[in-house]
Amino acid sequence: MKNTNNKLIILFTVFLTLSGSVFSQKRQPEIVSGKNGMIATAHPLASNAALEILKLGGNAVDAAVAAAFVIGVVEPDGSGLGGGGGILIYLSKEKKPVYINYYQRTSSQVDKLDFNNKTENKTVKAILVPGTVAGLITALENYGTLPLSKVIAPAIRHAEEGFPVDATLAGIILDNVEVLQKYSVTSSIYLPDGFPIMEGDILIQKDLARTLKIISEKGKDGFYSGEVAEKITNGIRSEGGIITLADFNNYEAIITDPTFGTYRGYQIVSAHEPQSGASIVEALNILENEDISTLGHYTTNSETLYLMAETFRRVYADRSAFIEDPRFGYVPVDELTSKEYANSRYEDIKNEKSVPKEYRKTKPGNPLNFIEPLDTVKEEIEKVLEQDGHTTHLSVIDKDGNVVSLTQTLGTFFGSGFTAAGVLMNNALMNFSFSSKINDVEPNKQPRSSIAPTIILQDNKPIIAIGSPGASRIIATVVQMIVNLIDFKMTAEEANFAPRFFCQKFDDYLYVESRIPQNIIDTLKLKGHNVQVLGDYDLFFGGAQLITVDSVTGIFYGSADPRRGGIALGY
Question: What is the pTM of this model?
Answer without folding.
Answer: 0.92
